[in-house]
Specification:
By secondary structure, this protein is an alpha/beta fold. Helix content is 38%, strand content 18%. It has helices spanning 7-18, 94-99, 103-109, 146-165, 176-189, 202-213, 236-251, 263-276, 301-312, 320-328, 332-346, 353-362, 366-375, 403-406, 429-436, 455-458, 461-473, and strands spanning 23-24, 29-37, 43-54, 64-72, 80-86, 113-119, 195-200, 218-224, 279-284, 294-299, 416-421, 442-448, 480-482. It starts with 6 loop residues before the first helix and ends in a 13-residue tail after the last strand.
Length: 495
């Protein structure tokens, strides 16, 4: 969903507005000196770049769009091919990622090569940025229901799609493959023989497609939280398996095991209770933040599954036993916390058109769809990980890239470091292993205890060491790292 403009976004806009005028670096590329400021106010000399590319390369009358990037110059005496950061989502900004918690990684990798924080087409500082103005507006007085969500969001998506089409946007241009060709256009404009890919989550999908479409132009790749070319829809069985692992770990943990010896059983019991009797919780109005104005939120099984999936997807898995236990115990503070995050989601924006168009064009194979359908009914989380896919795609009307796109890579010769977290419910290690089968030279670094996103890069200083080693040599000997695995005491959930 589309958040309010952050401080880093405001700083970015101000910096662009006050930067020196562009210096031409070619017919479709401009570069200018730029002082990059991180969220923590660290500053570094860099270059602001823009690149003009066709919106839809298969359209003979395609208009031109603009891609934005920041290039951090290498500190190496003899730099390797440029490293391009590929943000996840789809819909996240590479430039914003460089400003945030990963800023130290960008700075450290300069010892090997230039680092490029890239805003993919339709995102961030690229033009146009295809944000949707529409909001979900799910009613507070009804429990969460996938059918009602779909009815509401389909209408909002149709509105957003139409608003961009009347402004001349060709939504069929916002696909993984067009973005992969953008990367090659960037490489060529910069005069580089090849580039190194550094991607996370959806960024790994983009990296894989680039390696297939432009195999001789990829020098090396670091891919973390791997989402293969047919992994867009999540498998409920994989989520359930990870939930079982976390439940088992919790039962053995001294901080929570006594209170929640069988977390999965408590979850299923809570779901049965909510199925028969949804919960009504009165909270302060989340829109106005006015404590004199309140709203009653009705919560059901869908809302419970959604909250669990949000916690399980990040380092917040540490709080899952506390949430499960205290909600089952009737703690009113936990009920209000749960109602609060659900209410904010119901009032949030629907996000960016890029997310929908890219995912809908990527689609899923018949085999994948059948497996998801078979696994969902018996899973604790059911199919909440996929939320509205593929049904919402009807609103966008974009062309499916087809089965040729979704086929895995075979005999890929790009040296690649895969990074997975053993507690990652979104992109589990099994997905990396499946993708690796098509690579001649690869290493799979598994981090015991890591979940999705930042922990794949920042949970241990050894991860950066290994990334640098791989970038310099094309190989690493270490295949396993251990970070602390533990849970917060259940009675601390609301402290």
């Amino acid at each position: 969903m589309t958040p309010a403009r952050s401080l880093s976004t405001v700083l970015l806009a101000l910096a662009i507005a006050t930067a020196p005028g562009p210096a031409s670096a070619g017919s479709n590329l401009t570069l200018r000196p730029y002082t990059f400021v991180s969220a923590k106010r660290d500053s570094v000399a860099a270059e602001w770049g823009t690149l003009q590319v066709p919106e839809n390369r298969s359209g003979p009358r395609s208009r031109t769009i603009e891609l934005a990037f920041v290039r951090f110059p290498s500190t190496a005496k003899h730099p390797a091919p440029p490293i391009v950061y590929l943000a996840g989502g789809p819909g996240n900004s590479g430039i914003a990622a460089a400003r945030g918690s990963r800023f130290p990684l960008f700075m450290a990798l300069r010892s090997v090569a230039d680092i490029i924080a890239f805003d993919q087409r339709g995102i961030g500082a690229s033009v146009p940025a295809l944000d949707c103005e529409e909001r979900s507006d799910y009613p507070m007085d009804r429990p969460g229901d996938r059918g009602l969500w779909l009815d509401l969001v389909l209408g909002k998506c149709r509105s957003c799609a139409q608003s961009w089409r009347v402004r001349g946007v060709d939504l069929d241009g916002y696909t993984v493959s067009e973005s992969a060709d953008d990367l090659d256009a960037l490489r060529a404009a910069l005069g580089a023989e090849s580039i190194t890919l550094w991607g996370i989550s959806y960024g790994t999908t983009l990296g894989l497609d680039f390696m297939r479409r432009h195999p001789t132009r990829a020098h090396r790749a670091i891919l973390a939280g791997i989402e293969g070319l047919d992994d867009m829809v999540k498998r409920p069985g994989q989520v359930d398996s990870m939930l079982h692992v976390i439940s088992t770990l919790a039962s053995r943990d001294s901080a929570v095991g006594r209170d929640v010896p069988d977390m999965e059983r408590v979850m299923r019991e809570q779901l049965r209770v909510l199925e028969g009797r949804p919960m009504s919780v009165r909270i302060d109005n989340v829109a106005t933040k006015d404590t004199t104005d309140s709203v009653t939120v009705v919560l059901g099984p869908y809302d419970y599954r959604w909250a669990l999936y949000q916690l399980l997807g990040t380092k917040d898995y540490e709080w899952v036993p506390g949430f499960v236990w205290s909600l089952a115990d009737g703690d009113p503070r936990t009920e209000r916390w749960w109602a609060g995050i659900v209410a904010r989601e119901r009032r949030s924006g629907i996000g960016t058109a890029v997310t929908y168009c890219t995912d809908c064009a990527s689609g899923a194979s018949p085999t994948r769809r059948a497996r998801v359908s078979a696994e969902a009914p018996g899973a604790v989380i059911q199919d909440v990980a996929n939320i509205l896919y593929p049904d919402v795609c009807d609103a966008w009307g974009v062309r499916d890239l087809g089965e040729a796109f979704r086929r895995p890579l075979v005999d890929c010769r790009v040296p690649t470091l895969f990074i997975s977290g053993t507690l990652d419910v979104r992109t589990p290690p099994a997905q990396a292993e499946a993708v690796r089968a098509g690579f001649r030279t690869s290493t799979h670094l598994q981090i015991d205890g890591a979940t999705h996103s930042d922990p794949l890069f920042l949970s241990s200083p050894r991860i950066l060491d290994l990334m640098l080693e791989f970038l310099r040599t094309g190989r690493v000997a270490t295949r396993r790292l251990q970070i602390p695995i533990g849970f917060r005491p259940v009675r601390a959930f609301n402290d």
